[in-house]
Amino acid sequence: MSKARHKQPFELPDFYVPWPARLNPHLEAARVHTKAWSYEMGILGPPNDGTQREVWSERRFDGMDYALLCAYTHPEAPSVELDLITDWYVWVFYFDDHFLEVYKYSRDIQGGQAYLDRLPLFMPLDLSQTPPEPTNAVERGLWNLWQRTVPTMSMDWRRRFYENTKHLLDESMWEIENISEARVSNPVEYIEMRRKVGGAPWSSDLVEHAVAEIPARVVQSRPMRVFKDTFSDAVHLRNDLFSYEREILEEGELSNGVLVVEKFLECDTQRAADLVNDLLTSRLQQFENTAATELPWLFAEYGLNPAEQAQVMLYLRGLQDWQSGGHEWHMRSNRYMNQTAGRENRELSIPLPSGLGMSAIKLPLTAGALGLGPRARSFSHVPRQHVGPVKLPKFYMPYSTYLSPHLERARRNSKDWARRMGMLDELPGLGLYIWDDHKFDVADVALCGALIHPDATPEQLDLTACWLVWGTYADDYFPALYSHTRDMPGAKLFNARLTQFMPDDVEAVNAAVPTNPVEVGLADLWKRTAGPLSAYGRKLFRKAIQDMTESWIWELNNQILNRVPDPVDYVEMRRKTFGSDLTMSLSRLSKGDAIPEAVFKTRTLRALENSAADYACFVNDIFSYQKEIEFEGELNNGVLVVQKFLGVDKDEAVLVLNHLMTARMKQFEHLVAKEIPVVIRSFDLDTDAQEKLHKYVEQLQQWMAGIPMWHAAVDRYKEFELRDAAMPKFKTGNIGSLGALGTSALRVAELFKREHP
């Protein structure tokens, strides 16, 4: 073992690289071009921005070799395109190092913010707008690149590229603030913020520029979001492994995934690095799984023609090229720790064909390089195993709530409403009861409403309780009809129909006739809730409901594949399956127009809501573990996800999940104490708006406090109640009629096209 090897903080793991790396033949031309361009912009050469700091020497520039990075990550780009993309990467890495040198080291928050505030001026969506005179190499380079990049792209792409570039720039302040407070983020916060700070979504936009622009109507679909997010996470996690030594030991950074895991799990650096690599592998396999199982549905449902399908496929190949090419560059660049990247004995010693070209064949030997660990764990779950009750941990809860005095009225009225909607009746033709009086009483969702919305008026609490009844019933109804039969077409048709019962004109006669209690209940609640809302408010509220119901399709897909979800995908989808945005939207919309909508779009408010949602979701996962895993054959549960990913038992997984809940709650506290005041100042909120914003935060606190209290109080999750209620009861001979609920993918596509013209 060499001396250099001893100095490394950990041994690089075996990376899963499922796609071959290729090299662009225009590499040398790009090297020549980008060096000349860097001198022209002032990135290289004597400093011309008044800082008297030379950020990069030519020798360092040559060693980092960004032209090699781009030649690997864009192997088919024409020479002019490769030059442009290489210049972009030189600029973005220079920005990162320049910001570090001038603002991060000095902790100059005020100067750093002023510097960042100017940069959007050099990215006008309309090129007829002239920016101010550039004052440094970053501004000069950005304006030059912007003029060369956006003219050939649609306005939709320009907006996305602008936003992702701005995120990349702005969130550098988040890193400064964490360094100033010596604060290491929690794992969920880190993944979310790294996508913005790390720039991979920005890179995926440049992939579109280089190969094919995605059809605008599918950009926000789940598969396309997953492709971008998994691409981003894999790029960032790989970079964290290679850059740990430079960032943590040399630069004093705190924004690194290995460090985050190290601190969160209180484990050694090697263990943390191996877990980060497992997550990197899992994210790449999520990309593969989505392409195999969700992309065909996307093409059918959105009616993409062959040319549009080809655009999507070219884009995905571009992302794959970037993954493999980025890995090759990290193995070679002097910017990173890669001395031991080529370990010995990694090839499988088996007889191989001889002859021309065969000497280069190498087959990986290790499980890590083959990606076997995460894949095997995610597909190895055996349903309905005996797991027994969960030993509840001590939950960290700094907030409190109280019980609404209108609880009994809400219980009575919500049950009467459920009966009128048909939720307590046998489903016609199926001999199936989703709920009866006993199941309704056991769930006692009115109690949940009385705890999470304690200051509601009697009418408001009635409405809240009915929404909770509807969401809980629908969440039981959907798996009863579709999960056990694996009826994906029927499930998609069921979900697509729901939009028909949420019209913009709430007074219009609905052409669609409700056919089940879920549709009947939704139609009734939509009229009662959406009527007073503005057009924008209805759109926001409708999306919250759609996000929840569409997420059940994701759960069904996992059930069909018997696949325990990837950890990151699980956390992000769990917020939707739990209906977090639905209940939060009720609180948000009650604030009227006093709070500007832009406030709710800030990183602070989104982080606040996501932290609250995660806490509540994980509470539910712990309480419902036995119900879902042992009695219902479920596998979409956070405790199980932790078990499989970390390779620990149930009790240890509960402790880890509770630790994550605590971290998310402390992040919530941090945001309230440190960042909400900044939001108030930034938007110059008046007294009324400040009061309503603080009230909204208080309602989130009551929401988080009420969720575990309700779970502990009701019998819905207790073992004695689960024994006879694990499965819906069918009358003899009627279970086969479920087959009539199935439908073809063509019918799903036709309905989807009508709902999304």
Automatic annotation (TrEMBL):
Keywords: Lyase, Magnesium, Metal-binding. NCBIfam families: f2_encap_cargo3 (NF041168). Its EC number is 4.2.3.-. InterPro entries: Isoprenoid_synthase_dom_sf, Terpene_cyclase-like_2. The keyword Repeat does not apply. The keyword Isomerase does not apply. Belongs to the terpene synthase family. This is Terpene synthase. Gene3D superfamilies: Farnesyl Diphosphate Synthase. Its cofactor is Mg(2+). It is an enzyme of class 4 (lyase). It holds the Pfam family Terpene_syn_C_2.
